Amino acid sequence: MTLQEIGKVDIAQCESVSGYHRRAPDSEFTSFELSAEDERCSQLIDLFAQQKYRRSLINLLSPDGGSTHRPKDGDFIWDLSFNFGPTDFPDGSTGEGVLVTCRNFFGKLSLFRAYDGKAIRCTVQDQDAFLQQVYDIISAEP
């Protein structure tokens, strides 16, 4: 599935990306906001638009529950919020703001869509490389 199919919005229409990241052993999170004019914003949008996402079988379990992880040096997490202007949803309603959130929790990828408030655990091909590529983009100095 594409991110558009999962999130119910066209990721190419995203106006900005914000979020935070952290790499162990650091305990402080670094926040960021990338406007449409920032090359890193378009890199992220293109990267997420190109991926094919597969739902994880963990989605069959309810409720989702929490996750824990004892980080080792070099482990990282990130959380991205894709911000949109006024957007039409498939049911005819509209929304704006953060409509899709993607989270990497130490190698576990999840997507949240505002359309119906659903969180979905998923995987992508070459997931470790993809997660690292995202981290490299958002942690790069402007």
Q: Which band does the percent of strand residues land in?
A: 35-45%
What general outline do the C-alpha atoms trace?
A: globular
What value does the Rg take, in angstroms? 15 Å
Biggest sheet character? 7 strands, antiparallel
Order of helices and strands: HEEHEEEEEH
The overall average pLDDT, rounded, is: 89
Number of helices: 3
Instruction: Report low-confidence residues grouped into runs of 5 or more.
Output: none
**Care to count the β-strands?**
7
Termini distance? 32 Å
The share of residues in helices is: 10-25%
| Quaternary | single chain
Structural class: alpha+beta
Spatial strand sequence of the major β-sheet: 2-1-4-5-6-7-3
What key phrases describe this protein's structure?
single chain, about 140 residues, alpha+beta, seven-stranded antiparallel sheet, 3 helices, 7 strands, about 20% helix, globular
Write the layout of secondary structure elements.
Layout: H1 3-7, E1 16-23, E2 30-35, H2 39-50, E3 53-55, E4 76-88, E5 94-105, E6 108-113, E7 118-124, H3 127-139
